[in-house]
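Need DUF1269 domain-containing protein's 3D structure for a figure. Predict it.
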Amino acid sequence: MSLGASAAGLAYGAVELHVISFETEHVPEGLLRALSERAAHGDVRILDLVLLDRPAEGAPRIRELEAGDDGCTHFALHARGLIAEDDLHELASCVPRGGAAAVVALEPIWAREFAEQIAIAGSVIVATVRIPAPAINAAVEIALED
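Structure prediction for DUF1269 domain-containing protein:
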């Protein structure tokens, strides 16, 4: 997969940034497996993946994952360092003391082609709203009850 610009001048489509909190110091294996599977199937391109550790006392620790770390052997990071350190320090405040989190920047592959077609048509996305899975599942359940 090329990282260069497309005919519409876009090297990337929309990128999602996820902060995933967990109760251990290590990334749950299921999370890495899910990312690996989605990347292997060509559904997403994983751009950056960083671990945040927020000890009970003291400053958060930030660790950029390297190939082979914590099971990261099945996918490449296509834009390592994309998530800025200032942003990581701000995001660390979302993690409970004594907890940890993974911050992953990923590009849904369909988003690049979608963005290219919008640009080619001379159009512009003016808003995007992402509804978290628990919220949409609850909303659909309520809607189907009527």
